[in-house]
Records
---
Amino acid sequence: MRADKARNREAVLAAVARLLEEADDPDEVSMDAVAAAAGVGKGTIFRGFGDRRGLIRTLYDDRVAQSLAPTPPTAESPSDAAVELLTRVWTFKEQHRGLTLALEREGQGSPYQSAGYDRLHADLVSLITRGRGPENAGFLAHALLAAVRSDLVEHLRRQPDGDPLAGLRDLVRQVFS
Amino acid sequence: MRADKARNREAVLAAVARLLEEADDPDEVSMDAVAAAAGVGKGTIFRGFGDRRGLIRTLYDDRVAQSLAPTPPTAESPSDAAVELLTRVWTFKEQHRGLTLALEREGQGSPYQSAGYDRLHADLVSLITRGRGPENAGFLAHALLAAVRSDLVEHLRRQPDGDPLAGLRDLVRQVFS
DNA sequence: ACCATAGCGGACTATCGGTCCGCTTAGGAA
DNA sequence: TTCCTAAGCGGACCGATAGTCCGCTATGGT
């Protein structure tokens, strides 16, 4: 890869990350604004990332690799493992609110076709099956993941209502009981 | 109100309802398409409903008044009342998938500032408080409502995974237990 | 029958995501 | 160091969309 290409790639990712976190709403961040902030032409972005979804997914994968990759499997009960998994997702979305809001709004507005979702869902189904049996495991996994959707995280950040992580633990333990 | 205004209002509401249910994705339904289908000019729509959100909210309120208004309160336990409430919401969103998908995608993508949401949340908080106490009631109510979000309803309609209403009953009973 | 005006509607604007192609420059070869 | 080729750049451009505006129409009270 040519040096200027790599340099521009990093500049674009840094620019979009900053703009997403600064904006109230991800839709306010236009591709033109990203190009201007990165100091590159708009064509460079679309050539390097395909389209808006590709740019956001690339940044997301990047941040996931940084924050979520080191998973020391502290062996526990399925219930505790689910609590830990969902807590990790929640805090990740708190730390990357703009990015995760944008990600869940792409894919024609539904987060259910992102590659990461299927993986999380499958893991949760496995934990639920081991913890309480297979009845309704698919739906319950969806429901638990719905409780950590980024716009709910954002909503509770703006108008707090108790301790969400405590509520999340409570929810998971009830489901597994 | 002049007769032509009332006539156009009904034509627009009928057109947008039809187009939303026919479309795979609510974003495919443009305001131009609604105007053409209703046989009116685009200005007529924006004068009568303000903007896209206003049009969708008006249609939603209309349908809610038709389908959800007659609430015969079959007095039961808080848990059963919550099951009934959420089941009613689920089936409403199944019956009006295009409309509810569109509604939850307006409001800058978050359903949490719709007037109807606060009402449902308050009702659920009350039921949860009576059924299991006030701890985490706010969060748990949000989580239960997240389990009936329209894009999850739609996702499970497209790729079924067990009986969602059975799963929903299961979830609510666990939360209340 | 008349006419003031509520209401109409489509041309217009602003802005967006995405495309395209002539120009620039990186970086291996000689 | 020089040269040359193609990888890469970037901004003018396009099509679509939500929303605006204003000259015209037709409603319904007088």
Note: Residues 2, 4-5, 8, 35, 40-44, 47 of chain B lie near DNA strand C (CB under 10 Å from a C1').
---
Amino acid sequence: MSHNKVVNGNKMPSSKEVALLAQVSQATVSRVFSGQTNIREQTRLRVLEAAEKLGYRPNAIARGLTLNRSNLIAIVSINVVNPHYNVMINKVADRIQKLAREPLYFVCSEEKKLDEIISQVLQYRVDGIIVLSAAVSTQMAAECEKIQIPVVVFNKYTVNNNIMTVCSDNVKAGWMAANYFHSKGYRNYAFIGSNTFLGTSKDRLRGFKDALFEKGIEKCEVQMVPYTYEAGGQAIREILSEEKKIDAVFCAGDMLALGAMDTIKYEYGLKIPEDIAVIGFDNIDAASWPPYSLTTFEQQIDKMLDTTFNYLSKKLNGEAISEGVELFECKIVERSSVL
Amino acid sequence: MSHNKVVNGNKMPSSKEVALLAQVSQATVSRVFSGQTNIREQTRLRVLEAAEKLGYRPNAIARGLTLNRSNLIAIVSINVVNPHYNVMINKVADRIQKLAREPLYFVCSEEKKLDEIISQVLQYRVDGIIVLSAAVSTQMAAECEKIQIPVVVFNKYTVNNNIMTVCSDNVKAGWMAANYFHSKGYRNYAFIGSNTFLGTSKDRLRGFKDALFEKGIEKCEVQMVPYTYEAGGQAIREILSEEKKIDAVFCAGDMLALGAMDTIKYEYGLKIPEDIAVIGFDNIDAASWPPYSLTTFEQQIDKMLDTTFNYLSKKLNGEAISEGVELFECKIVERSSVL
DNA sequence: TATTATAATGATAACGTATACATTTAGATA
DNA sequence: TATCTAAATGTATACGTTATCATTATAATA
């Protein structure tokens, strides 16, 4: 059938077959490929040559079984179209590879199903789990802790003894946004958040309202919508339609902000920032483009990743490091969507 | 030390431990969890109860070893910030999960290193490999074929007997773009492609030039730049700076097109489409936003994914299906960046 | 050369699962 | 009840690696 009859046509050769060809024991082959030192150069070469000839590659699955770890690190992310998000995922994947591990990628349609997904993840005996923008249940966190699998929740504020949480200080950012608006003379506020990232949006809203309260302002139009450009437009439409006079809108995501801006300009013929000022969140690429020039918040993603991976690698090396919540301050990137 | 002394504090229980508690053999536990039928309901429940009590989860790694397949499907993608791309990756991941497999995600910084990455992928004895926008070497393709691992190259035209290629008909799309421009009366052309997706860009350029040639037009300014918004701007700057009169530019990617458009409008004060018409590629979200309203090409991503996963699942089920190149036509989405 | 110390290698037992085969049990029939 | 058949379960082994321990080969020393 096959044109190739060498050894075992259709499956990858094992170390045993390499050993046979190189005339050494299987253990020696294993030693060569697990990078041990006590090997005579001559035999090492003979083994490598035999391996080359057979197209041998160590079986990571089998290795995982004996070592009781897979070298896999899971990324669990909610399924959302968000440029900022995809940048994050790529960065996370890259860091995992730099840790000499492989990213096992799980997409989670609804946050409700997160526990189910993690349960699946655990079947792979991953070395660690990074959850993006979703909350891990207390029960699941306890279970992971019990079997010594480090979990980092990234970009979602949760308090949980057993897991590491790395997150932006969203409450403070909201507070900063309000103060920034106020300092520029704006007085009639609106907030557009997303129910896709509900917790995060709520935190930003809380900080926003806190600051307004400090200034003696109670009124603030609030819309919570899906995280899309269109929904941003729809939200501002709701706000503007009912004769509610606002002159400043804080959007808990650039995508929402861009949708709102275009609606403000093209549907209502209003000027930004003269009629309405806008602040966004995430500083996605498009925020800096001339048609928008959106003032927005930048998160310290790289520093957050440093913390995440410092924690993970310490855990993986068995070094002591304690869990907790690590908050990072956001920075306003000033452009021209606010006076 | 630990507050929990049940069985084996810090590692996940095995089927053996479950068997012990349920007073059955390990084989029976295995049978319950691999969904076999010949099990008395009573014992099945006893096993499930014991498993529940111990927090047992089958070890996918060990299962992979015996079955000689991991249930993993690798996604190998080049590292690029491209919204269209991230949408694709999410869709691919989702389909993999629907196939009851898990996506193992590899990011490849340079296309040169693809073979190296695939070599790593193969260590995990993945059930299949999906390569996005990168070419697999003939040698590597042959190797994968030999060990019966199906490979699909998505979104990159390559001819290779051993792998399945699913790709848009880029040559034809380029040809369509030129004809579209020409039918609207434009006569002075430029092309901006990306060296990040060089092969794809070249194909689109070839079709574009072919059509121009048919019309008796030889001249066409060409720029090949990295796939970014900024590079798109820089490219059009190069084209416009040297007194080269052009009135139509075809960009092999929306990101490039948006960058070019903003530069045309805000730096040169020219009007789109009156002074210069623009066609993009991919139909990313931003292309439809009012400031751009970009006429662009839409790829039949879902149909392409259908073909990809139909091929994969047939291969995985051992059904016969032959490799080959499957091309999909692109569709122009007409907006107002062309007269 | 004989003796040691050390480096290199081999033999073997895990790791947790699935499965072929052997055995037991339960249900059906006479 | 005895017998037979089929279903349920148990036993034992293999999957490809790593690691421990035992053994052999090599180099260093007297």
Note: Residues 198-214 of chain B form the longest helix (17 residues).
